[in-house]
Structures are given as structure tokens and as C-alpha cells.
Amino acid sequence: GDVKMRKQLIVSLLLVVGIILGACSSKDENVIEVGTQDYTDPKIMGQIIKLLIENETDYTVNVTEDIQASPQIINALDQGEFDVATLYSGEVYNNHFDDDKVEFSTEPEKTMEQAQNLFKEKFNFKWYDSIGFNNQYSVAVTREFAEENNVETMSDLGKFADSIILGTDSAWKERANDGYEAYTEAYGYEFSDVRGMEISLMYVGIENDELDAITAYTVDPQIIEQDLVLLEDDKDFFAPYDASLVARGELVEENQAVSDVLDSIVGLISTEEMTELIREVEINERNTTEVAEEFLKEKGMLD
Questions:
Q1: 12: pLDDT confidence band, cut at 50, 70 and 90?
Q2: Cα torsion angle, 227, 192, 179, 111, sign
Q3: Helix and strand element counts for the chain (H, E)
Q4: Could you write out the DSSP letters of every residue in 24-89?
Q5: Most distant CA atoms of the chain, gap in Å
Q6: Residue 245 to residue 206: CA distance in whole angstroms
Q7: pTM summary value
Q8: Chain-centroid distance, C-alpha 236
Q9: Is the CB of residue 258 less than 8 Å from the CB of residue 57?
């Protein structure tokens, strides 16, 4: 039984070595892994990246959806589990770097520049210039209210604040540096009432005249659906969340073709256009692939 034992040992050793080697190179060289968060704009971007890379290069793209939070995506990019993702400039302020490295700013350019430099330095990510849209807090009112009262900015809204009921997601009421308390300091007025609720209920409330204003995200499709007006944040209060593609540095340094495709997505989609695409998915219940493909054809980027 000695020989048999040795044979078994060799076989199992080979298996172990195979498993170890397999684990090191389990990522298929010809597959690009894209990760997306659990909301719609990154999911649409995932399909746009997939369609363009598969159309223009020899790579296949695998999209993994519904990652709970951006820090998990950053970690997966760092580990090499993902190659490309969509991230937002304001992420630079979410505890990825020591305080002495980051200077909180609500200026979009300054925020983007810090994101690009710091993520490159620490993780070797290539953080592209913006895709052209942002997904950040804003204050919205009905078009009727805006036009009747000549309200275009958040400062303008102050004249009516003492009769305004604001609906907001409960988190915003409590948030430290860009929540309600900080807002009242920046703009110098308070609303007559601030009610925390689920995001979907804010839209029902403003539709039914139970709310006069809401804190919306700039790409919420209900803005188009209900013809709401996003007010200009004239004091630059809200942190900017401009969307960018982010890729592992090694990937784009070694692959000109992939790099070119990602470059072609910079500036491609405005906030209004992304809101429209999200509306197609969330309200008209179409799938993200179809919506992405139609958009790229309209832009002349796919046949």
C-alpha cells in the first residue's frame, strides 16, 4: 500500500498546487470585471461600459450589480476583483484618507481634483474626468411655485421659508456637515417644518400639496415625471457628487484599447440625460441594457 499512498499524496499535492495557482489566476485575462452600486445610474453605466468595450475590443465584460456601498466597490477595485466602476467625487470626503490630506470643499473642481490625486496616490486608480452628470442633494419645488414666486435659487426660497414644509430623507435631518442644521447656518433661514421620511414618500407629498419643497437627488426620475424644479445651490452648500469612471491603474496603463473606450465616456451624459435614462428604467420599467444601447445608438457610438 506504500506506493498507493505515495501516489495519493502526489495527486493530492498536485490538487492543492492546482487550487493555489487557480486562485491566483482565477480572474480570466480576457474578462473585464465591472462593479456597480445598488442604485440605477451606476447600473446603467455598467451596461454602457460593457456595450462599448465589447464592441470596440476583444474583451468580454462581466457586470456585478448591487454592491451595497461605494467603499466596498473601492475595496474590490483595490483587491483586483473589479477593474472598473462608477464613483462620485464627494466620495473623497468619506474617510478614505487622513484628515490632513483632504480639505473639505463644496467646489466641484476642487473636489474632483482631490479625488483624482488622492485615489491615484493611495490606490493607483485612474479617476476619470466626469461623465457629465452628478447625483447629489438638491432642493426641489413645483414648477408652479417656482414660476409664481420667481424662485430660482435656494437663497430665493428663503423669502418664503417661514411658510414652507420641507420633506427630506430622515438621514439628512441628522447629518453633520451637510445636514439641515448646517443648511440653516449657510443660508440663514429655517423652514416652518422639516419632516423626515422615505424618499418615495417625499414625491407623493409634494404631488399632493402636503409638502412645499423636498430634498431631492439631482437624478431622481420623479423630477421629470412631476415637472419639479431643482433650485440652484447658490451658496455651494451641498457636497458635489460628480460621477466618474474609475479604473485600476494597471488595466488602463497596459491596455490602450480599453483606455480609449473609457476616455470616450468622459462628458458623455448630462444630469438631465441620466435622469431621463433612469426614468426609462425605474418608471417605464425597461431594462438597463436596452436603455443603454438605445442611448449609445442615439449618440452614434454603436451601430
A1: low
A2: positive
A3: 14, 10
A4: HT-S-TTEEEEEEESSHHHHHHHHHHHHHHHHHSS-EEEEEEEES-HHHHHHHHHTTS-SEEEEEG
A5: 94
A6: 34
A7: 0.84
A8: 20
A9: yes
